[in-house]
Amino acid sequence: MSAVTTNSPLREKRAPGPRGRAIAARDQSARLAATTVEQRVLFVSVACLCLIGLPMVLSASSVLSIESGGAPYALFEKQCMFLLAGLAVAVVAYRFVPMSALRRLRLALPIGTMALLVVVFLPGIGHVAGGSSRWIGVGPIQVQPSELMKISMVVFAADLLARRWKRSDHWAAIVRPMLTVLAVAAALIMAQPDLGTTIVVACITYVMMYSAGVPARLLGQTIAVLALPVGYYTLHAAYRRDRFLSFINPFAHASTSGYQVVQSLSTLGMGGLGGNGVGGSAATWGFLPNAHTDFVFAIIGGNFGILGSITVIGLFGLFAWAGFRIAARETDPFSRFVAVGITCWITCQAVINVGGVIDALPVTGIPLPFISYGGSALVSELAATGLLLGIARRQGSFGR
Amino acid sequence: MFVAFVLVSLLLARVVDVQGLGAARYAAYGNSELYQKVTLPALRGAIYDRNGNLIAVSVPRVDVVSDDFLVSNPSTDLGALSRILGLAPSALRSALTQRRGYVTLARQVSPATEAAVQALNLPNLTFIPDPERIDPAGNLFAPVLGVVGFAGTGLSGLEYQDQSLLQGIPGSEEVAVGAQGEAMPQGPRDVRSARQGSGLVLTLDQPLQYEVTKVLSARLKATDAASGTVVVLDTKTGGILSMVDLVRSKSGVVSPAPQNLAVTAEYQPGSVMKLATFSAALQDGVITPNSKLTVPFTIYLGGWPFQDAEFHPTEVMPVRQILAQSSNVGTIEIAARLGARRLYNQLRNLGFGQRTDLNWPGETAGDVPPLSTWWASSMGTIPIGTGEAVTALQIADAYNAVANGGVYVPPRLVQATVSPNGVEKLVTPPPTHRVIAAATARELVPMLELVTLDGTAVAAQIPGYSVAGKTGTAQIPNGHDGYTPGAWMATFVGFAPAQAPRLTAIVTINHPNDFYGGSASAPVFSTIMNYALRHFDVPPTAGTGRS
Q1: Do B242 and B209 form a contact (C-beta atoms < 8 A)?
Q2: Angle (CA) B176 B177 B182, round 5°
Q3: Given an 8 Å threshold on Cβ–Cβ distance, is A306 in contact with B16?
Q4: Quick check: bond before B485 cis, omega within 30?
Q5: Do B33 and A266 touch (CB under 8 A)?
Q6: How distant is the Cα of A160 from the closest Cα of chain B, in angstroms?
Q7: Which of B150, B149, B161 is nearest to B260 (CA)?
Q8: Per-domain boundaries in chain B
Q9: Which run of H or of E encompasses A180?
């Protein structure tokens, strides 16, 4: 694509074309060429996570790839393709998607995504895997619409909050419409079923409302009201109840509902302080299910030891720090809320994923951002990173 | 922002717990699932004869085992497998469809066969190590060596007795196995190499063993005997040079006995036991070789008649003639002069009623009745060897003491052990002890020599060598109230050369049609000693050469 040529001097000198404001903003930033600490931290942390992720996906998937009849690099190669596609999309989001353009999609994005979430259940287009209907697509390209719901929610909420944040203590102004959209999204995603993504979307929604000044008391009340049906739902289905309860003492259910967590903890323990080296974790030999997707963090800890685990958690910490700093200094309300939403999304997802892997939280089945195998998640996360960096870039051009 | 910081801190704390403080516990669980302990069998030590000939050796073999639950279609590839294993396809098919999960298709196949079967790449086959015990000398030493069962366990004989030496120490290792059962690329850990068992060097001599087996086998066939035993001792060391136990089936086939009869079978020995009476009486001065006794044909003790083997009128016989002619009555008269207590003590002294130093598994002590149980006729039965039970080895040892000038030399079978790295270590022989005064032994030798020159065992003579010895013929008890009619044990025991003994031997033949010890066993003694003396380069006795 044009990702490489966009920075060439030739294109810099071209007169503003039909893309108007976007080009103008880019030219301005190029002139100032000032990067902030947050920008660099954000970029480096995401780059490191992606670069750590690729060999970990290879390490975790090579045995699986061979056993499913392919070359040892089969899944790794696909993940490399996803990363390249994600980088292209990130560059586009960074350079060519002004906030105004994004804001125009405030309704189209959530409505379109919800439509796709319905399409998931259409036979012939939707694909079932692992008991869940999560994918749509034809041929080799398959997309997980629930991943899109996160950015859709961010855009929708950012727009709503930007317009109404001054009336933040009004139930009807913010909380009611937000929760309504969340309820519809949650219902569609839970129908797949996909609890983890639902929780991430809910977290994004609540943190954004909180950052807009909605009183914690009001949010707390809604959570209290929601806790009842959510609790019933969690404990009603046997597999969810077992999964939820087994996190308290997974070793008591080591061969049933606690199996995955027990394997994950064993992998981390065997990694210990020094790690087993890349490819050295025995867990990848069929012991740890979803080693290359939801439980890739265990492979990192197993391969690199405690240093690897701390590094990855620290990188997400740096991401959160940089993301919230960018949001804090942002003067444009919409951009600010987008920054909050994206940072919250990545951070929440990382915390919930790592928490599940290290048995600090129940396992909900979501990927680790930037690292886990999976195209839809990686591409949308890199796109979000591109947007976030774009916001920071414009701060650099205007703010200094 | 603060909340994010707290969350990240909590995650870090938990990571420190899982991978730092509590790592050992989690790792132990993981390793317990990952590693499977595998036993590395130790190769059993080999057994050699005195010349270094291999007479028992273990070779690596495997059992081919099928997990028939894994066979979806047993008809495929059966042809190749049945060809390699030499099993009929129909037998193979039924073996593969027993639905038991563990069916042994073939035992102890060679590495070449194993490789051929592995090349078929059949997923349902497993190869279990099962070393085979091979006796390169055929079954020449079978009753002595005994049997080795599955997994290298000695079940009888020397293989059982020296099991702890021979078996070695099995090793182990832990191999990593993936969740689907595939071997993982990292090597085994915690490898403890198996320590090969020690070897044994025996006192047995394979050429002599072969010769003895050949001669005894021929004799058993010639006399229609039920079984026979021969032990040849190195006089000076007590080392057993040959130990042969043969049985003959009713159809006439001679084969190695199922056990080492020379030490596990006790029997009434007959006249060879007269040694106890004569040695004690000579040593105590009760008689001299030239003393003369009046010997009737029949003598009564406790109302029971005792007779000599062949009728003779009452006559005056010198002591040496009583022994040479093996007169029962004369011997009983000497025993009466000696007294029961001194006779009993001499029996014990010569080793009867006690297990030998071989300490053989299943060895019998024999039966010398305690003095308190003797009654009137005991002084008739015990001096002539019909009131006690002994083993062939006990008799050989007692005569060997005479050959050694009155010093009892305990029998031995293992002269050295060989460590796994090939270092030979001599086994310390058990201590010897004097049982007969040297002067008495010197008096006994010419008397025993007379037996072969002008007595009951002329057939025991060896061309070129002087021989001292004694015959024994006894009826075989039927187990309750008497003797089996027509069933005899014929024994000859002796040593050569008589004046400078080098070899001592005993021959017993059970149930020969030709019942006197002199005629059944003495020729066997002559033939094997004729071979053995030359085999061990023993110089001929001056003045006895005939050819």
Answers
A1: yes
A2: 135
A3: yes
A4: no
A5: yes
A6: 22
A7: B161
A8: 40-67+134-168+188-202, 207-535
A9: helix A176-190
CATH number, span B40-67+134-168+188-202: 3.90.1310.10
Question: What pLDDT, in 10s, does the model give residues B484-530?
Answer: 877 889 999 999 999 999 999 999 999 888 766 567 899 999 999 99
How many whole angstroms separate alpha carbon A320 and alpha carbon A190? 27
CB contact under 8 A, A286 and B180: yes
Question: In this structure, which topology does domain B207-535 adopt according to CATH?
Answer: Beta-lactamase (3.40.710)
Cβ separation B30–A310 shorter than 8 A: no
Whether B16 sits inside 8 A of A313 (CB atoms) is: no
* CA A97 – CA A335 distance, rounded (Å): 12
Q: Which single residue is written with the structure tokens 């929760």? A: A179
CA–CA min distance B168, chain A (Å): 34
**Chain A hits for B174, Cβ within 8 Å:** none
User: With the C-alpha atoms ordered A263, A266, A270, A272, is the resulting torsion angle positive or negative?
Assistant: positive
Helical H segments across B109-190, by residue range: 111-119, 142-145, 157-161, 163-167
> 10 Å Cβ neighbour count for B86?
9
Q: Look-up: residue for tokens 């913010």?
A: A174
Asked whether the beta carbons of residue B19 and residue A324 sit closer than 8 angstroms, the reply is no
pTM of the shown model: 0.68
Contact between B195 and B420 (Cβ < 8 Å): yes
Condensed to tens digits (0 to 9), the pLDDT of residues B336-353 reads 999 999 999 999 999 999
Query: Which of B26, B178, B182 faces A268 most closely, judged by CB atoms?
Result: B26
Tokens of residue A208, six digits: 């954004």
Chain B hits for A301, Cβ within 8 Å = 15, 18-19
Minimum CA–CA partner of A326 in chain B = B1
Please list the residues that pair with B37 across neighbouring strands: B174
Do A269 and B8 make contact, defined as CB atoms within 8 angstroms? no
The Cα A228–Cα A224 span in angstroms is 7
A329 near A295, Cβ under 8 Å? no
User: Does A268 contact B18 at a Cβ distance shorter than 8 Å?
Assistant: yes
pLDDT in tens, B261-301: 999 999 999 999 999 999 999 999 999 999 999 999 999 99
Q: Which residues of chain A approach chain B closer than 8 Å at the C-beta?
A: 63, 67, 251, 254, 262-263, 265-273, 280, 282-283, 285-287, 301, 305-306, 309-310, 313-314, 316-317, 320-321, 324, 328, 347, 351, 354-355, 358-360
Domain positions in chain A: 38-395
Residues of B with Cβ-Cβ distance to A313 under 8 angstroms = 8, 11-12, 15
**CA proximity to A149, closest of A112, A203, A119, A97:** A112
Best mutation target among A208, A211, A266, A276 (most B Cβ atoms within 10 Å) is: A266
Specify the DSSP class assigned to residue A397: H
Q: How far apart are CA B247 and CA B313, in angstroms?
A: 40
Q: In this complex, is the C-beta atom of B78 within 8 Å of any C-beta atom belonging to chain A?
A: no
**Residue-wise DSSP of B480-504:** SSSEEEEEEEEEEEEEESSSS--EE
Residuewise pLDDT in 10s, chain A (400 residues): 333 333 433 334 444 455 556 655 555 555 454 568 888 999 999 999 999 999 999 988 888 888 787 788 888 999 999 999 999 999 999 988 888 888 998 899 999 999 988 888 877 777 777 666 677 776 667 788 888 899 999 999 999 998 888 887 778 888 889 999 999 999 898 888 888 899 999 999 999 999 888 888 888 988 888 888 878 877 777 777 777 777 788 888 777 788 888 889 988 898 888 888 888 888 888 888 888 888 999 999 999 999 999 999 999 999 999 999 999 888 899 999 999 999 999 999 999 999 999 988 888 889 999 999 988 899 999 999 999 999 988 876 544 3
Nearest to B22 among A254, A269, A314 (CB): A269
